[in-house]
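can u do me a favor
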């Protein structure tokens, strides 16, 4: 069995055993991340449990905001593409306009390859010329 040095957690004063050769350990009582400083023979707190939870919460909130922004951008894109498709009906015909409109309502804004944007740009330029 490996030897362990006995210390106390700087955050909660609970006993902490640091296995020989280990540099970082977690306190079993407060879940703080501790770093062993060999030259001083003591432990320092790297992060407390509350800090770790706070960072996790912030990361989750950031991801939720990113997802919401992406969803809003995709909705704006679909609305714009649908408007372009409706405006293009007199130029390209009813069946092609309907296909463009249906493609714009799909979740990915078309087939996902960006062809809808190219078609919308071409139709927009045709409408500008007429």
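np, heres the sequence
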């Amino acid at each position: 069995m490996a030897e362990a040095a006995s210390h106390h957690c700087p955050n909660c004063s609970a006993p902490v055993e640091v296995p020989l050769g280990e540099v970082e350990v977690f306190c079993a009582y407060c879940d703080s991340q501790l770093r062993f400083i060999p030259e001083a023979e003591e432990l320092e707190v790297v992060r407390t449990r509350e800090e770790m939870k706070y960072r996790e919460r912030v990361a989750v909130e950031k991801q939720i905001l990113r997802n919401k922004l992406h969803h809003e951008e995709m909705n704006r894109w679909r609305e714009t593409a649908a408007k372009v498709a409706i405006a293009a009906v007199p130029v390209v015909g009813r069946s092609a306009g309907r296909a463009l409109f249906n493609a714009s309502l799909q979740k990915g804004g078309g087939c996902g390859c960006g062809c809808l944007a190219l078609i919308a740009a071409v139709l927009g330029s045709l409408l500008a010329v007429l």
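The chain is about 55% helix and 20% strand. hope that helps!!
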